[in-house]
Amino acid sequence: MGSVFDRELVVVSGKGGAGKSTLAAALALLAADRGLRTIVVEVGEQNRLRTLFGVDGAEASVETQLQDRLWSLSIDPDRALLEWLQSLGGRVSGRVLASSSTFQYFAAAAPGAKELVSMVKIWELTQGKRWRGRTHGYDLVVLDAPATGHALGMLDSPRTFGAIARVGPIAAQAERLRQLLQDPTRTDYLAVAHASELAVTETLELQRRLGEQLGRGLRAVVVNGTLPQRFNPAELRQLSSLAARAELAALASGGQGRAKPPTSSRSRPQPQRPSRTSGMASSDGSATLSAASAAAHAVSERARAQHNQLARLRRRGFEVTGVPFQFSGELDLSGVRRIAEHLRRKL
Questions:
Q1: 4-227+325-344 maps to which CATH number?
Q2: What are phi and psi of 226, to 5 degrees?
Q3: Which of 37, 134, 286, 300 could join 250 in a cystine, given CB atoms 3.0 to 4.6 angstroms apart?
Q4: Overall average pLDDT of the 6-24 stretch
Q5: Helices first, then strands: H and E counts in the chain
């Protein structure tokens, strides 16, 4: 089966908000560490990578180096279309054709035209001989694809246009793209999901549609934000028992450890005698134990639900890799590197 790092293209998709961009960046970091000339491609006017790496001032639609052996590009379909047309040559220059109102109307109105142009640009990035002779190809292109539905539309655009334009340069380019996307030695597909019922269902749909459209399947599913099962059932029962005993002891010590209210405006509360039961008999100790027990049960229940979804994926034959939940307000580059180190042992 080989490694994903032996491919020319890795497509990362899945449910929106599951962390596709984070996983694409982590995968690209691993590839660059292996000595591969790597580029992460974003679409839909996204520009997350430059922000993550702190690279300012660079134009998003220009290939920009982020670190040694690692670049990023946010595809501008209009710019990519112009480059493609110029590469085709012919009597009419690409710039003249691109400025034609008739052609612009066609590009805007034709279903999937921008998706096809974006895919053509991605194909071009994998080539040793680029449209512009002075630029270099990449060993690995990591596509930070849109969410499942839009990604499938992008991947299906070569077939759609190949059926419309049966001859000519568009048909030839669509065929080259189809070969790239269908060849398991050149392209791999990764899904990113949360361990929730909805996200797993969407992953199963992605697998089904990839099979129908391209005759391919998912190489692996990366499940983001997984929680460990920290407590076994016996430990949870023990926590519940401790919390219940502490609450009873606090009640027995008198009003949950609080002084009784005064009977008149002149009376003052009397100091309480120290409890002899234990430190757990105080209301503070009881509340702390109750909160700890409730938190442990809640986290365990969430982890159990997640593990059920992981098992659901494995029963369908998927290779599943869990990425631990990152306990931080905002994921920065150091957090992405930690995820990359975790994936290094898995992929």
A1: 3.40.50.300
A2: -80, 150
A3: 286
A4: 94
A5: 12, 8
